[in-house]
Amino acid sequence: MSFKILQPALEHGLAARVGRLAAANRTPIDTPTFVGVTSRGAIPHLTPDVISKHTDIRVAYMALEDFTEKSSKRKSPAIFSQPEDVCRPLHAYTATPSSTYTILAPRRTPAVVAPNGNGPKHISVLTSTGFERLTCENYCTAIKQIMPDIVVAPADLTFSSATPGAKRQVFMVQRTQEWLDEFFLHLDSEKTLKPSGIHVFAPLLPISYPMQWKYLNHLSEVHAARLNGLTLYDAKILHDLKNHPQLLDLPRLSMDSPESPQQILQQVRLGVDIFATPLVNNISDAGVALNFSFPPPAAGSSGIQPLGIDMSSEEHQVSVTPFMEGCGCYACTKHHRAYLQHLMNAREMLGWTLLQIHNHHVMSEFFRHIRLAIADGTFEQKAGEFTKYYESEFPLGTGVRPRARGYHFKPEAGQPRINKAPWSKLEGEGTPDQVAAAEAAGLVVTGPAAGGSETPLVPDADTAALVREGFAKVDGV
Amino acid sequence: MAATIASQSSAALTFDLVARCSVTRARASCLTLPHGPVQLPMFMPVATQASLKGLTPEQLEETGCRLCLNNTYHLGLKPGQEVLAAIGGAHKLQGWQHNLLTDSGGYELVLGAFSPLLPGHLLQQLTKYLQLSDEHSISLQNTIGSDIMMQLDDVLVTTSPGCSSHARGYAAKHTQNLFCIIQGGLDLEMRRECCEEMVARNTPGIAIGGLSGGEAKADYCRVVATCTELLPELKPRYVMGIGYPEDLVVSVALGADMFDCVWPTRTARFGNAVTKYGVLNVKNAKFGVDFGPIEEGCGCICCRKGDGGLGITRAFVHHNIAKETVSAHLLTLHNVWYQLNLMREVRDAIIADRYPAFIRQFFANLYPNKGDYPEWAMGALHGVGVDLLEDET
């Protein structure tokens, strides 16, 4: 894999830069860019044909924990049992087109915090059947078998919002360094990684530079030649990267999830090249259509503009305008706000699909213009205009989100339920709107219920269908 | 393209008969509707709330679909008649360039009313909320702007003459077609009487309703056969709510042309794939390590290899069933394609006048053992001159 910095940053790599990442047999990608974040190998709500036709997603982030659930039905996870003639098993299993790069990491983003934490020899990962231990060796074996294009080396991370204590931080550095050494023992750069077209991005930890400078030294001195990139869990570490010139020209993948385009601009300014951010999927699930462009339109008099539009709002009911004025995506050219509002209101799955198409398109355009602006030296000025023009946070979506799954999140004690009950009592306190309740009672069974994912009060099938489907039959018996 | 044998037109519909099976009552025809021609016999997928369960209208179009259903009752609730009127109808709402058919909306009210779990006071609330009169149903369907709309029939009082003056006096005659519905339950005498009444009304097409409600298949076939015998040849015949592949193949032999059912798309969301060898429950653990396509040799975008095919495996579908919506979308794509393709093959066989042989092959694929052939199918097909057990010569 080669990474060419087309527009070098001015001083020590500590500024926005334009680059081009290229691997054998894959079309090069220009950076800064963002990657599609998959859930269980699929970009949520998008089938592969829609991805190829209507999005510009060229890199897909996948988590090993999404593929390794234990099952009493088979010895090893299915992804490892593919026919031997499959040349890129991770691509093949997930039906990812060969033009797309895959990035594999142990954990999803965002990752669910493991209550027991990691051990000296393992990372705790969450599969759809529960927490498991992933050792460095197992991770390496999996990589060898499924052959992602890019792999994020294991790091000891807590994924908790609280900064870990000093003692924990010492462990984090120690373990991450040990695991990286072990990683390259299992996966020899010359014998295994290069011939298989697997590229390694080493993790930088989300702790202060003084706590991990020795680890960065170790990276520079021992591993620099084997590394193809760096993975940042806190982009601020870039401030101190100048002390490690061997690492400066490596592409930088940010897992420091920005929550707004302004935060993306901030990280671009620090020199981030690739963003793996769950932001887009989240915004789509919330029923919000992105509504910003870079640089912003010539300033009007109407004040600070919102970054997105809540498409569930009734104000769009009869609006036959595109989700975003002037947007060229499939959803905006073929459909309008009124349809999307109807789909959100009727809890039809197509609503999320159209939002994903649109939101990924807006994001691709955002990054394309960022690259142009860096190249012609106007990035700082335009980024400043952007910050002035738009609100700093997304509006809240008022729509019903898709049903959350156990592998998406683990509720903490005392939190309200994330999935709304499909039905509730009519009488008594907090009686919901009667019509809504009637619908929930199964008269208009749609959305998640129709998705076969939950049991509505009135079965969604007639008796004949139930007999045919195998009513209450245990899977596989 | 086969030549037209005979045709008949009304204001917004032309029916061109293209071929007759020389043995059964099956026929192939071309129906020209306000939003373009469709080939009969055909299966129509159901986009209940103006969306075919997660597929984009473009994906639906790519399966070959040119006529799909919307549900009047659901569209009347959401987005509602006012919104539909403001947008300019359901085609504009969902960005669908092709034909739409809407049912009357009566059936859903009956479904709701007879749900054993529905408390009485809730029913009252509902009825207040959406009182569906004949007039209202037609007015709603006018606003929706469907190419084919259905009269409000009375599913329960099965002798209802239906098709009232409102229905006959509907507004958009030149852009919409109103089909009448033959009722009469399983009583063949009532059905005959109703057929006579309905034929006299001279609607552009005729539907056979009140079936697919859990009746015995043999009874179903008797009703369809009785009705088709009495219906004029040059009008499309639509049997409502039918979608299992066997039912389609037999019903075509009995002389029916159009069918709709939520089953193929609903069963997709339950993790089931419809194939020519039967329905596969892809949730079953054995498919977790099955790296073949959903159906070997299938031409749908999921199963096709190369040429824009996606190379989806059963293993990947299994991996995400009930976990990511993408699996439901993939199976929906496959199942809709299967149903439409089945009808394309049926049509080709009728035009080539080899439909009886097609039926035999179809059942042989589904049932490796002739002893398992369903009695009802053998009986019904026997009635139209096809012996399922006969060997191909």
TrEMBL record, chain A:
This is Queuine tRNA-ribosyltransferase accessory subunit 2. Keywords: Cytoplasm, Metal-binding, tRNA processing, Zinc. Binds 1 zinc ion per subunit. SUPFAM superfamilies: tRNA-guanine transglycosylase. Transmembrane segments: none annotated. Heterodimer of a catalytic subunit and an accessory subunit. It comes from Apiospora saccharicola. The keyword Metal-binding applies. Gene3D superfamilies: Queuine tRNA-ribosyltransferase-like (3.20.20.105). HAMAP family: QTRT2.
TrEMBL record, chain B:
Residues 24-366 form the tRNA-guanine(15) transglycosylase-like domain. Keywords: Zinc. It holds the Pfam family TGT. SUPFAM superfamilies: tRNA-guanine transglycosylase. It comes from the Eukaryota. InterPro entries: TGT-like_sf, tRNA_ribo_trans-like. PANTHER family: QUEUINE TRNA-RIBOSYLTRANSFERASE CATALYTIC SUBUNIT 1. This is Queuine tRNA-ribosyltransferase. It comes from Apiospora saccharicola.
